[in-house]
What we know:
Layout: H1 6-9, H2 11-14, H3 17-32, E1 35-36, H4 44-48, E2 56-60, H5 85-98, H6 109-113, E3 116-120, E4 125-126, H7 138-150, E5 157-161, H8 162-166, E6 178-182, H9 199-209
Parallel strand pairs: 2-3, 2-5, 5-6
Antiparallel strand pairs: 1-4
Amino acid sequence: MIGNKWDEVLKDEFEKDYFVELMEFIKKEYKEKVLYPYFPNIFNALKYTDYDDVKVVIIGQDPYHGLGEAHGLSFSVLEGVKKPPSLKNIFKELKDDLNIDEPEYGNLKKWTGEGVLLLNSVLTVEKDKPASYQNIGWETFTDAVIKKINEKDTPVVFILWGNFAKSKQQFITNKNHYVITSAHPSPFSANKGFFGSKPFSKTNKFLESKNIKPINWDLK
């Protein structure tokens, strides 16, 4: 399914009735409608950041619903695609926090190689219809992913932006881990606690305190 250790970690989840039914339904939907991301990219977050490599989890809600934007990583868009407002604000905070300049593109894939899992709670969306696949089973699956990361002995940083992401804190019970919360980076809430929250430096300070190599947040 994924092609790395996640297959072993999530083996039982993949065999559950809800997941089998979910995948059958989604495959049918892709044949009849325009969905994002493209089908092979649905599980990119897990493909790009293997279970043992996860140092940081950034939780998003559901994929971008515009043409060519979503590619399976939360908050990320492919090269050549205009950066959405939330992502622009993430880069503003990165500049303020670590003095890292905003890159020309919005593809965050380089972070995945650093051990950052860019996980959306819902993994598909219909074109131009935000939240169109909420409550069909994706949340059950991605909650299971969070629970599996919670079981890790090695410390992990969970970055929860906004109320939706904060609702996942109930699954993070392992005292080894570190949770960073703030307002969402969207233009509607960024000034209510996202700007100035310094999640990137806080993450690296925690990792270094546990003798774990910090994240290189520079995408260039």
